[in-house]
Amino acid sequence: MPENHVMNHTSWRHGVTRYQWLVLLVAWLGWVFDSMDATIYAIVLHPALEELLRTSVADGLVSHEVIGWYGGLIFSIFLIGWAVGGVLFGIVADYFGRTKTLIITILVYSLFTGLAALSDTWWHLAIYRFVTALGIGGEWAAGAVIVAEVWPEEKRAKAAGILQSAWAAGFFLAAAINLLLQSYSWRVLFLVGILPAFMSLFIFMWVEEPDRWVKSRSQELLSGAGRRVKLLDLFKGNLLRPTLVGSSLAFVAVFGLWGATNWVPTLVRELPDLQGLDRAVQSTYVSYAIMALNLGALVGYFCFGPMADRFGRRPIFAVMCAGSLVMLPITFLTPPAYADVLLLLPVLGFFNNGIFSGFPIYLPELYPTSLRATGAGFCFNAGRILASTGPFLTGFLVTSLGSFGRAASAVALIYLVGLAILPFAPETRGRPLPD
What we know:
about 425 residues, mainly alpha, Growth Hormone, Chain: A, 20 helices
């Protein structure tokens, strides 16, 4: 019995080649550095804007409200860039190749993260963050598709779960870098963001274009179909429903994350038992809270794939939406003390962040090879432009409802939209990738 148990536990890894693991590692590292980049901005937001805005304020003192306004504005610009990059480079990946696009996007977000260290004004920083986001959005589209096309059919969901876990790993990497460099200027953290550019050299040397894409692209060129604008094809015939469903599900997930969960630091700072503490001490408690949230997210990332293989894609998306709908109000409204929040955050992270593991599994399964990156990139990112209003909506709701807890709980209602969409979603469990 123990021997059989071990065989069952490890069987999913049997038959995976070294090259397939290499492709997953490359895509995983690309997403790690994406996450690291986004987290670095969150870490340096306050000191960076305090310095950049000081010259435009009469007395040289920059209020938290001013920092919050410009910080939210830059972040919304970043989300729009992410959306544009995801759609644009998804098309590029279908035309010119997944590997080439992966290299280009990593170079873009690495170099422009480094250039952000040269910012002299807030709008310089905004421009650099916009271009950085173009690369981040495109890297996901290329990376998710190349893993889906290279890995064995029956193991794709588990590989996608591993891929999405990179987001949590990137957060911890950024936190570690911040601890090592906390005595240095915020500009140094942005300079560290250049390092992923060196990874593009290894991708160029080791990773080939997937056979699926090579065959499909050759057939397109022979038929002349490669000259058409592929984005329009997502809204034709039997692809219209998957496109609308995929885009709507991604919008729900992104809106819920940025509109509610990302206010966790504010929730923690407002807890009664942390009032009166030194700001540095409060920041330490905030760091532990975010780590707790990401630990739960990591479990969610790994669990989505196996659960989706067993029960189907739609039921697990429904579980994640329902769990987020319930856990956001519980987490933001009920806890009277920091210890209670610390226990609830991993559960919230499991649902609210874990849902994102479904997209590198589900979206590539909805489209044929010639449109896979375009479709996955569009669906995952199109909703980000609307979702970029999430932080501002939450700020408005705080004013209207009187607290961040009530505002975040109101934003949680977006998951009802997700539950309403799912009956129309195609179920793809057990089906091979369409050619």
